[in-house]
């Protein structure tokens, strides 16, 4: 019989198939564990129900599961890989595939505990009001022994940190996160992050 953690990890694997593209088994397992631990600490019954942000419930839902945290995370992972490959092919700038994927997949993991509510109504919870976005996810990464460069990538993905990306992987995740987010905001007629 499976325990709850194993059941949650199976669900995470199903919702985030990009995790399987991380070739380093230890890193792949750590990414899954961090998602599972955040989920276990939250009040969410299913991470598939977590909206991307408080404006998500009122936004256009052009496809199933649009504007969810899981869909946004998948989009950032896929955009990051495509962007990195383009930059590598056309400019010769290398990147670390596993590091890029880990940062992309963990960049918003702390939203699981930062937000509370339902799919129809979400708001910042206690953690979200008191802890800067991304910090708790970065803490969990450090706690699980991930390299400083990966932790930096999660911290630097948001302008709230005031940190500027110092690796190609962190830079790519920051820009593609804005691309995906601003695409949704523009579609919803909301103010863009890009100013």
From TrEMBL:
Residues 65-191 form the HD/PDEase domain. Gene3D superfamilies: Hypothetical protein af1432 (1.10.3210.10). It comes from the Bacteria. NCBIfam families: HDIG. This is HD domain-containing protein. It comes from Nonomuraea cypriaca. The lineage of its organism: Bacteria, Bacillati, Actinomycetota, Actinomycetes, Streptosporangiales.
